[in-house]
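# nightly structure sweep
# worker-07 picked up a monomer target from the shared queue
# config: single-sequence mode, recycle default, output format = structure tokens
# input follows
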Amino acid sequence: MLVTTGEAPEGSAASLLRPRQSYGPGTKRNPKLAKEILTTIAETSDNKSLKLAFSAFLALSDAMRSSLLSAIEVVDRQPLLNDLGEELEHSLRLVAPTGKAALAREMLEGWWWPRICEVLMANPPDPIPISALEAKLDDIRELLKRDAIIADFEYAEPSDIEIAEYDGFRFVKQLHVIGLGGNRLRFAKRDYYRAFVQRSKWTREHVVLDEELERFEQRLVEEWEPRFAAMCDAHAEGEIDDTKLKQDAQEIYYWVETEARLPFRSITAKFLNVGSYHILANDLRVGWHKDFMVLCAEESQDG
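# output follows
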């Protein structure tokens, strides 16, 4: 298959080797005539730069030339590389809802390129059945329903530099206050990063509205409020047992890590729930320690 952005002149050998479905009424693919045209050219042309190619072609038997050209398809009039994205999005207009064709293209390309690379490197090469492509398009269509959103950053990993930058943030201070550290602290930073960049992308691309995120955060706060109030009530009287207070505060945070899973539109994801709680903790809208407002309010940070 020879692909070109140019157009094969009508009546040329190349025009006679287009795929069968490319021809309109009254015209058809004709490898036999293409062979005759190319043979005449090879025998009569004075083009020195193609002399070796002409010799190689004429060295083939008549049957081999026919077999070679029967196996060739010339796909002309294809879009320029700069225009390919727009062409694909136009073709996907029936798959994606309005405004989501670009996202559909990204999803299709993300699936296609690794798949086609595997096929091309396999020996012998494996075909990609059209049913596999149709199944992927069906998946994309379902994922892009108007009430569906894509979690692009569910498994994203922040760099060590980004992890270190969070050390001055209030949500990290809140975890230090209740005695949390080690891997759980790193996991918290990772969930904060994933939720922050995911929410930022949704907002930037107008996939979700600010009001939706505000309602989601309000539900998170309201789920936290009675648990935090109960913990505060348990330590309202008598001498403060700091060890017990930290343990009870860790219980609330453990609930966030393991159980708090409120849906956001069509997805219920751990990273989004836990990370959003850290975003709220960073703004001091929620906390784990009974006195988190006093202990963390004066903490300076860049985030």
